[in-house]
Amino acid sequence: MDTRLTAEQDGIRRTLRELLRERCGPGDVRAAVDGPAGYDPLLWSALAGRLGLPGLALPEAYGGVGCSVTELALACEETGRFLLPSPLLATCVLTAPLVLALGTEAQRAGLLPRIAAGTLTAALAVAGPALTTALGLTCENSGYSAGGGRAGGVQARRAAGEWRLYGEAAQVLDGHSAQVLLVAAHTGGFARSRTLLFLVPGDAAGVVRARQTALDATRPCGRVQLRDVRAKVLGTEDADVPAALAAAGDAAAAVLAAEAVGAADRVLALTVEYAGQRVQFGRPIGSFQAVKHRLADVYVGVQAARSAAYYAAWAAGRGEGAGGLALAQALEALRCAAAEGIQLHGGIGFTWEHDAHLYFKRAAGDELLFGPAHRLRDRAAEAAGLFTGGEVAV
């Protein structure tokens, strides 16, 4: 692995950082999350038109840029730095790869060019608590059932030669605003349990959606209710959905890790800046050895997480799974950076209105949605066969 960035990769990162510095300050973030969609549509259009961000990792044949997971991870490191509220995660990181992997040619041609142009948003409708299970991040997903047992979740049945969906999925990222829903539904009966993915227009008859209150408002979530809704299978009915979800999950974990690294790096920079300005006992608090040690520990954690995230993104492009471990390390680095930021900002850091709390909420929210770190590591150890019967495998 060559750790040096190419000129193209550095250009993507630099250009995106400059645009977000102008258009995505803390005040802009707070204003965007209060909007109906939970993000700024004008900024999203600018990111699509000027930078091609939605299509960065999509093939050129479908209107994308044709880059790899590495470039998408570098871009998301910058969006994480500014806590950009956008459809990027739900549409381009979670949904588009599944359409590309499983969709028919007609489905790809109908959806991916519009996603790449930024004119179509999508969401993966999996119940929030089951998202990491479906993506294979916290346990093997071969036994995953979108139905959630005999009650709950989403069920699919055939009626008059077409598929009908009924049920509910809560905590769906961008579920309240996405124009297309990719719904994981249980079908085949309980004796032959299986999960398929279905395409449903967001405004289809029988779809009822509402935005939910979330700890991290920069990741808006919605509750999706399906009341006998017509749906079309993504791809074919014999598709290997668990394998596709696991592959998408590993790449998504690498991207999420890079995003968390960007957020951790930014909150660390804010804390270092404040420590150099706040005077106590006649000198800046950043000159005290104890404060230096705490900031140094955060810095080491951020740099280690960045290395892990970059490697995971590179490995994802080669089909080698390392996303879960990188995400665990990045989540811990972000949590530590946010906590130290609040502590070292003193009394002002404990007010919800302070910018440090935007990063604290992102750290806590990501732990709830994609973690916790110890379960991510446990799954990685299980997948690697490190432990069998309670003893180390040799």
Overall description:
With 394 residues, the protein is an alpha+beta fold. It folds into three domains: 115 residues, Acyl-CoA dehydrogenase/oxidase, N-terminal domain (Butyryl-Coa Dehydrogenase, subunit A, domain 1), CATH 1.10.540; 118 residues, Butyryl-CoA Dehydrogenase, subunit A, domain 2 (Beta Barrel), CATH 2.40.110; 151 residues, Butyryl-CoA Dehydrogenase, subunit A, domain 3. The chain is built from twelve helices and eleven strands. The strands form three sheets. Strands 1, 2, 3, 4, 5, 6 and 7 form a seven-stranded mixed sheet that branches. Helix 5 packs antiparallel against helix 8, helix 9 packs antiparallel against helix 10 and helix 10 runs antiparallel to helix 11. The two termini are 27 Å apart. The relative contact order is 0.11. Its cofactor is FAD. It comes from Streptomyces rameus. Keywords: FAD, Flavoprotein, Oxidoreductase. Belongs to the acyl-CoA dehydrogenase family. InterPro entries: Acyl-CoA_Oxase/DH_mid-dom_sf (IPR046373), AcylCo_DH-like_C (IPR036250), AcylCo_DH/oxidase_C (IPR009075), AcylCoA_DH/ox_N (IPR013786), AcylCoA_DH/ox_N_sf (IPR037069), AcylCoA_DH/oxidase_NM_dom_sf (IPR009100).
